[in-house]
Amino acid sequence: PEAAPGEERAAGEQQDEEDDLGYRLFPERNKQPQSFLARSLFTFHNRCQVMLRMTLDTNPHARLLLEAMKQSGCTVFNDRHFSCENCDSCVGGGFDSATSQIVLCQNNIRHQSQMNRVVTHELIHAFDHCRAHVDWFKNVKHLACSEIRAANLSGDCTLMNEIARFKFGLKRHQQTCVRDRAIRSILAVRKVSKETAEKAVNEVFDVCFNDLEPFGRIPHSKSDAKRAYKDFQNRDRYNANL
């Protein structure tokens, strides 16, 4: 049977709302999960799972964030909180606050280093979701703050990554990169103007750029992240003895 005009409008409005929230970039979010046998036939999925496990077991950025979330009462479970899916070609991953799941774009993540950065980036969003009442969908400044923190702390803006993008400016390159990537991330997942995204980022930039939790520093390298992880563990031991 044909839908009534009102039903058609409602469906259209619902689709527009989903698109506005960025779900168009993650088309598998609304599908039924595949069986293990079906998933095992796809190389992308297997590769994604192997790289994810390597990141969670060995990457100091991810290990620190997992520890911090556990202590905040938000323990992360691999099977429950990570999902390898096919996505739009413009994204590597996303955090779905409605399900508290990190989406890893198995068709776009091709290298272990890329997996490390994507997992870290999205875990920072998950950490922010755990520790604060983030209004992801209606308050663009909340989204901007988390995107600034994710770009700043995940390794997205290391000097080597910037050089790989053919950006060679050294003066305040971290701030410039973080600002640019935060704006790009907002524009990718929300239907807002560039001016709106820039305004939101500018209004919260200083506070959010200097919010370094749970790292306590900007981890410019893997060795920096290892030191931050060690400091975090020592901080916990000190608090446990109080």
Automatic annotation (TrEMBL):
**BP term (GO), one:** mitochondrial proton-transporting ATP synthase complex assembly
Q: Top enzyme class of this protein?
A: hydrolase
Q: Return the InterPro entries for the record.
A: Peptidase_M76_ATP23
Gene Ontology terms: cellular component: mitochondrion
Q: Reply yes or no: does the keyword Chaperone apply.
A: no
Which keywords are on file for this protein?
Answer: Hydrolase, Metal-binding, Metalloprotease, Protease
**One term of GO molecular function:** metalloendopeptidase activity
Asked if the keyword Metal-binding belongs to this entry, the reply reads: yes
Membrane spanning residue stretches: none
Bias (Basic and acidic residues) occurs at: 1-11
Residue ranges of the region described as Disordered: 1-20
Q: What is its EC number?
A: 3.4.24.-
* Pfam families per record: Peptidase_M76
Q: Which family does it belong to?
A: Belongs to the peptidase M76 family.
PANTHER family named among the record's database cross-references? MITOCHONDRIAL INNER MEMBRANE PROTEASE, MITOCHONDRIAL INNER MEMBRANE PROTEASE ATP23 HOMOLOG
UniProt name for this protein: Mitochondrial inner membrane protease ATP23
